Amino acid sequence: MNKYGFGILMVALLLTSCHSQSRERSMQAGTVKDMQGREVILPDRIERIAGVRPGALRLLAYMGVTDRVVGIEQVEKGGDDRPYMRAYPELLKLPLIGPRGGDAELIVNTHPDVIFMTYASAADADALQGKTGIPVVVLEYPEMGTAIEQLYASLELLGKILHREERADSLVAYIRNTIRDLHKRTANIAESGKPSAYIGGIAHGRTRNITSTHPDYPPFAFVNAANIAGKMDRTHTSSLAGAYINTEQLLLWNPDVIFIDESGLDLAREDLNPGGLLAGLAAVQTNRVYTLLTYNSYAANYDIALIDSWFIGKTLYPESFADVVMEEKADEILEMFLGKSVFRELISPDSFKPVPTLRSE
């Protein structure tokens, strides 16, 4: 080989080496570790996205990227008690990508660049990714009262992937500051000065009656409420399965104040109305039974959880929340989470009021 041929060979090898290094750097720049610790290689541009399983679409709405969503699960239809579906009704016009959890073929037909998946193991995500050939990123959708740092991590991961870091940071900061404010207002209230409180009617997969409760109910935790169900055995409870008691246990606890999740209000009335099994409860006799907006609807409504927290705080400790106007606070929260307030569309005549039919005649 003459010196010219050798020179050409060296240049070719150098270019090949540079291309290989550049390609490696590009792949690394587009690689993230999801919430299950999986290494996921992402495309350079992410303009089309899908979310499957409970809460995935809600997180995308919180990040302000509904314009990139290409399809929704069947279960998202009829979600009138989900603020994000009220705020972005155009989502209902998108193609269906299957039932809960999605259908691989239907997802592929909508051509997303990335699929976001909640309540999933690494094996679940690998299986869907294998069937679709589309990157699948697992997000956590935790309970706010017990694992809120995982929520922050999911929002920050979404911000990184979708180049919405500032949005993620501002939402995380807002949630932190809101919970800090709620806690500060109630941290110094003596336990002896707290009325015992109970939450019933929380939906888990379907509507439930008053015996469906939550021992770690986030709104109670945020305002340091005396959650009378907090003492129950958690061995067989989870955020998906729910926590249930019997009417005898509620009679035994006899809470000072009862809050009813609006999704279960009609069922709760059967036991609480005059002549019902629980009509003799102290909260019923003193007209201290109140309705809250729906906490669970295809996983927890995080924005509603904060709104409910302010109402619970005002109800249990009126002096500590005297400056709070509920409608203004609800507008603020929904505008922060969704870019617009749909509070007036979410509330009913029963929302945030004593339940009038429970008054003893």
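[next item in queue]
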Amino acid sequence: MLRTDLEFSMLPKLGTGPVRWRITDGFVAYEEAVQTMEREVGAIAEGGDELVWLVEHPPLYTAGTSANAADLVQPDRFPVFATGRGGEYTYHGPGQRVAYVMLDLKRRRQDVRAFVAALEDVVIRTLDMMNVRGERREDRVGVWVRRPEKPLLPDGSMAEDKIAALGIRLRKWVTFHGLSLNVDPDLDHFSGIVPCGISAHGVTSLVDLGLPVMMADVDVMLRAAFETVFGETVNDA
């Protein structure tokens, strides 16, 4: 169920200007992304302007702090990176929009659960602009899409696929890592892991749902949704 703006708004924001919005074309190496986030988070903690950074990565797997080694089904398929974000194994690769969200919660609301729910809200609003109903689940982080055309699950419930994953980390109340939205990745690449430790449900993408959208169009909608939830953005060099 979609929560209300009032419940999950991260505003008011105090003390600095709008959130910088940066898009990097081409593939960004994961090590480079982590180094950039470390540098930016340090500057934000000292009072610098917040940042959302949109990237694509070459194919790789990341292991969060709760990752189970048994969930890495094909360890030699792609490079595997241990990361300090919460969560388990995830896949990043071409056709997936990764948004690294670096916000200072001291200037907003020092509530990690509310922040995660607000990120889910950004994805849900983005999907809604494309007439896709994204939903959150109390027992599973991320955004899910019901698949009535698929067979029912063994318990008789409707099949669901994950379309967006979330994983965050905080340092001095500044967030980093963020979310990944499947636009048109190779869904077979997810078979090398048990995504987020959940085997009962599948993974989908916008193109898999029958929406042949361009990444640039998704970026526009993602930005509009972010501004609704978190406030004004400004283009970053």
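[queue empty]
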